[in-house]
Amino acid sequence: MDESLRMVDPALALVVFAAFVVVTAAVLWPKRGLVARLARSSRLSERVLLEDALKHVYTCESIGRECTIESMAGQLEVSTGKAAALLARLAESDLVRSTEPGPHLTEGGRASALRLVRTHRLWERYLADRTGVPAGEWHAEAERMEHALSAEETDALASRLGHPAWDPHGDPIPTTGGELPEVDRITLAGVQPGRTVEIIHLEDEPREIYDALLADGLGLGVRLDVVERSGRTVRVRGRGREWPLSGVVAANVSVRLLPTDETADEVADTLVDLRPGEVGRVVDVSPACQGSQRRRLLDLGVVKGTAIKSELVSATGSPVAYRIRGALIALRREQAAWIRIERTEASVELAS
């Protein structure tokens, strides 16, 4: 019995030693071991937190609200102690400066924050125009990618998208140099009854309110008549129905006032309205057109300013052949209805 055990022990010891070597290597292997991966993950998480903290200071400044340790802790879902430490590190890096009311961005801090904002909004534009990702998921996806893309990759993305000026929510996209246009907005909550408005921006945070706005059929370009306003609700009419919006929800909708002689029932011309031989110039493509459908139209050159001529209507009325940048393209009626136009002279020179 003892002899057999002595014969087995060396083999067992060898197996145990081999297992120990494998586990040790898996844990301590340079660059690829568990310890190295955890260290990288920790560094990445810390960088992401610092960038999120920087962007929170920028957001507070852009909306005229003072940034506090408490507001940062709530936004980043960390303790106030951690938020204070993040602000201290940003100050050490000369990205923020401490003032009596609260932290404010330095010139370098603003430039860094705008790079994050630029990447975020470009990625949302990409998701809206080139993928089938639901609108409610754009913000969360862009939150991840703003930390992953380099400045060079962001510039390449902007070039691929044709250097868009606005994200799909109606927010301006910073240029490479960090320039942003001045945007003078009013919210639906502040519009007087009797006026007609057009939605130019939907706030995408918090997600619950944004989802409710989408479920209500609200989006960029939608027109609404403001019927009644109280301290708690704003009653609107549009698209054949009338309904109330809470004051909190209405405050998340930015609009522009339309001339007093216009109403929400007036519908802008689309390609569908052109008769054979007539020409229209593209004003925009409806936000309702997303994913692969939007990508196809953009690839065909259907962008603001493009002149399109109606050439030939099929026997059934759909599809219709249109002359777009020198090519004859067939579009179904529902596709043509997404393309808003302003009529122009039939003799206009079509872009080739």
Describe the structure.
By secondary structure, the protein is an alpha+beta fold. Helix content is 41%, strand content 19%. It has 5 domains: 1-26; 34-105, Arc Repressor Mutant, subunit A, CATH 1.10.10; 115-180, Arc Repressor Mutant, subunit A (Orthogonal Bundle), CATH 1.10.10; 186-257, Ferrous iron transport protein A (FeoA) (SH3 type barrels, Roll), CATH 2.30.30.90; 271-344, SH3 type barrels. It has 11 helices and 13 strands. Helix 2 (34-62) packs across helix 4 (80-92), helix 2 packs across helix 5 and helix 5 (107-130) packs across helix 7. Mean pLDDT is 84; it is low at 35-44.
Topology diagram in text:
Elements: H1 2-28, H2 34-62, H3 69-76, H4 80-92, E1 96-97, E2 104-105, H5 107-130, H6 138-145, H7 151-160, E3 186-187, E4 196-202, H8 207-215, E5 223-229, E6 233-238, E7 241-246, H9 247-250, E8 253-257, E9 279-285, H10 291-299, E10 307-313, E11 320-324, E12 327-331, H11 333-336, E13 339-344
Antiparallel strand pairs: 1-2, 3-8, 4-5, 4-8, 5-6, 6-7, 9-10, 9-13, 10-11, 11-12
Helix pairs in contact: 2-4, 2-5, 3-4, 5-6, 5-7, 5-10
The first-to-last residue Cα distance is: 94 Å
Any guess at the CATH architecture of the largest domain? Roll
Into which percent range does the helicity of residues fall? 40-55%
Strand content: 15-25%
Q: Give the count of structural domains.
A: 5
**SSE order, one letter for each helix or strand:** HHHHEEHHHEEHEEEHEEHEEEHE
Find the count of extended strands (DSSP E, 2+ residues): 13
- The side-by-side strand order for the widest beta sheet comes to 3-8-4-5-6-7
Runs in which pLDDT lies below 50 for 5 or more consecutive residues are 35-44
Average pLDDT figure: 84
Structural class: alpha+beta
C-alpha geometry:
globular
Which CATH first-tier class of the largest domain would you pick? Mainly Beta
Major sheet characteristics: 6 strands, antiparallel
Radius of gyration: 28 Å
Number of helices: 11
